[in-house]
Write the structure tokens for this entry.
Amino acid sequence: MDVNALQFVLLVLLAGFRAVDAYSTQAIPFMHALVCWLAGIILGDPNTGLIVGGTIQLMSMGAAGLGGSSAPDYGMAGMVATVTACITGNGDISVGLAIGVVVAMLYVQLDVIFKIYNSWVFKVIRGYAVKREYNKMLASCFLSHLWLFLQGALPMIIVLAFGQQAVEAINAFMPQWFTDGLSIAAGVLPVTGFAILLTFMPVNKFYAFLIAGYVLAAYLNLSVLPIALLGAVVAIEYFRNKSEAAPVAAATVNGGELEDE
Amino acid sequence: MSNFFKPKEFKDFNEAPAPVQLPDGSYEPVLTDEDLKICSRRMCLMDTVSYSYATQNAPCAMFASYYALRKIYGNDEDAFNTAILNQLDCVFNATPPVSGLLLGAGLAMEDKGHLNGIHAENDLKVGLMGPISGIGDVFIWILPMTILGSIAGYMAQQGSPVGILLWLAVWVALYFWRMQNYVQGYKAGASVVTKMGDKLNVLTDAASILGLTVVGSLIYSSVKLTTPLVFQYGEISLGIQEGVLDQIFPNILGLLLAVMVYKLIKKGVKLNWIILGILAVSCVCAAFGILAA
């Protein structure tokens, strides 16, 4: 399908806003499924947006870049994947996903450059503070936002301009095993999100609940919402027992397994 | 909206009143709830946007508290300049939605002690930004990501936006809270984090139970890996997936992969290498027909 001018502008604005929002306003941080859904709505194909976004969301879980660390930019991956999947329009999301993931991995390098750029912004801000030019000092704080907007918007312009040709070229030249491989990878890549998430959680202490969740899904075929509610039942009772019965015992639980990496 | 990010009655240095010093050397606190809410809202514009290798997010803290500091120091421009430079030079980085608690507590010290209070304020900020981020990361990022994020992601994969809207609703509710969190930090003062300690550990554990249950179910339903291989022995043919693997354990290949990736990350293997490895192994296995999508 062709992208019209309005769709082009809206997608570029969405990509720019998402990049700014992730660091600053945090109105929709890490909500990749939402952003992909919106991108899908703009392109008139919300369903593809939801499916791509859901996959990216599950992949990204845990990779929240805590403590200033740099994580692959899954938001960028999601938008690139949604747009390429929608504009090629053949219902196959795996090539779009693979391109998106590769972009996210390259893109993370920009994160380091952004933080170095911010060191320069800091010098500007401090310079105005020393000179007591406070309005300029406050205004130059937004230099960081400007960079982020461009960092999000420019790749989107490139993808919109060349995405379709790139995907067609890949489809034309790539052998069957490559596209099959991408489909397999698209199916299993959410595993990375769960694995990182688990490293943040007290797995050794509560691994039994992992088994419970797996069994509820695999053998009882429950969907995720009822399973979450059953988990909540246990969590509520646990909290009630522990916080009423033994405040002393609770104090010894120092949460050491929840290290912030 | 004129007083949303900036106080309505903002006075320049030459019009602002002089700070009132009390007999014991401290100052009359001047900040109102409205001033502190402005700080919170200004922080929502910045959060971690200034993160640099210089003083991390210190410019964000300065930007948020700018008008509060102007009010504290009134007509004393020299003292204000010292305070602004102190904000810029004091390293700061905390989980954005809860950072206002800490910065609000710091402002309470500065409101009372002026320049005599800024050393204690800096100590408080640097000393508690780690612990408060530990709590904030778990309750603001990791748990919503696990529970709401995975529900949203899973339902979206099935073509339903309900999970996304649920997550958004919870986040919006939290956003209303954080748009005034300096007020709570200011009122609670330095004891805010230490007091919360014990109960939060139990709450973290309870929430972890919920999170792990959800992750356990998603490892089954979201990691799809099957083999099309068929075992041939004379007349007998047996599909490996449905005949053997599914009999042992449903989706056992996905489960084994999850365990393997978890162990690799625990060993410190970089995520990018793992993703590349998965892409490469998928292609090789597709070429030889060992795995199928």
